[in-house]
Amino acid sequence: MSEDVFKKIVSHCKEYGFVFQSSEIYDGLSAVYDYGQMGVELKNNIKKYWWDSMVLLHENVVGIDSAIFMHPTIWKASGHVDAFNDPLIDNKDSKKRYRADVLIEDHMAKIDDKINKEVEKAAKRFGESFDEAMFRQTNPRILENQAKRNEVHTRFAKALNDNNLDELRQIIVDCEIVDPISGTRNWTDVRQFNLMFSTEMGSTADGAMKVYLRPETAQGIFVNFLNVQKTGRMKIPFGIAQIGKAFRNEIVARQFIFRMREFEQMEMQFFVRPGEELEWFAKWKDIRMKWHKALGFGDHKYRFHDHDKLAHYANAATDVEFEMPFGFKEVEGIHSRTDFDLSSHEKFSGKKIQYFDPELNKSYTPYVIETSIGVDRMFLSTMSAAYCEEEVEGGETRVVLKLPAALAPIKLGVLPLIKKDGLPEKAQEIIDNLKFDFKCQYDEKDSIGKRYRRQDAIGTPYCVTVDHQTLEDNTVTIRYRDTMEQERVAIDKLAGIISDKVSMKNLLKTIV
Ligand code: ATP
User: Fold this and answer.
1) Which terminus has fewer CB within 10 Å in the chain: N or C?
2) Is 331 near ligand 1, meaning CB less than 6 Å away?
3) What is the pLDDT of residues 428-447, one digit of tens each?
4) pTM of the full predicted structure?
């Protein structure tokens, strides 16, 4: 898939009421987006899929909903005030600002592309006898590029770990990375930039307090650890899940809803005995990957990417990456955060935050495995994977969103063949009976063909057409989105046919 397809997805999102630019009539607000009438349904379904997979399928995972504003010392304790920075660099000619680490990562990705193209070319040339591993180990051009990439990678990982901003700049200079806009190499120094938004709480006369808009939902879970553990009588291992908004003043906000300044996270902190964290880390990696793959977009679209730079609190970390139209990108992070957060809150708050383990007969600070996924990135990956242009009879193309039925905003389109003879009333009657089970949409405008296309474009898995025969024998024509096949079925069979296929329950059953 290419950038071109990505552009089409972005405009499709707007045209069909999935995602709008925020404050559009005022020319928009950068990296902030609104979800429209279709988008909100898809988003809610994604959230439900995640929430139910956590709190329904795991008896030892419970949810909370903590406030966006929190005591400012929390962000001192978490390290965000001092260390939630991105290294930024400006190009003096274009006056554009970039993340230094992203410039270098993009450069390495370009070298990877070169290598892969070389391999593809050779594969075509040699046909069946092609030995890819051997080719990679012996081809001089590949070896040269691989050595170049390894060298950059080693320097890059070290610079990040040492927080060496000068070295980051030097890598950009040595790699001759140019600004994509001005094409020049006229770079400033690299500086750190804190990503938290702040505001003031209370009136200034009272002495207003500087508070932050949370940059992650996780801290709301940590500071409620004891509340939930005690009131819920939770025994370790157990988890706390939360869905909520987070805010980051991203330096380079681009790629649509991939990197936003206001976004939504679904996070789960799983508290375990010290020493058992890596075992749980491996388990949660499996559980989360299964959750992604169950959507049926193809296993090859996912991969794990282990972190080069571990955050100061982590002893293992990986990303779940999804193949977006612009390459493999992080959708979810899975981190083993040790006892860093709870210990730190204990220190800063002066309150004891420990767990008494009745089996071990001792108290300790639990270790934590975190799974953290962005709703909006999940939305984007779902849209990208579902978006499809197909050639149909007569050389026409149809745009169809092949959304998993459980996530589709509308499950059933109900279309009277014509706007008279009692057909609209009959269609409405069908909706009135089915609306308790799933979301239906009535549409009587334009030809049936056009109406099918509109439902395809929003990913509706089923449509039924109500015609004159319906009035006689209570049957309708059901049409399936993906195959476009049609068949005649009795109205009283509809709930049975559709409910099973669109049910979240059946999707969840595939991941246990
Ligand atoms: P990135 O490296 O892309 O900035 P991150 O590693 O900082 O992401 P985390 O802090 O691990 O991200 O956040 C967990 C998840 O929250 C990410 O996997 C992503 O899905 C989501 N997320 C983070 N920042 C944004 C953002 N600016 N816009 C949308 N989603 C985001």
Assistant:
1) C
2) yes
3) 999 999 999 999 999 999 99
4) 0.88
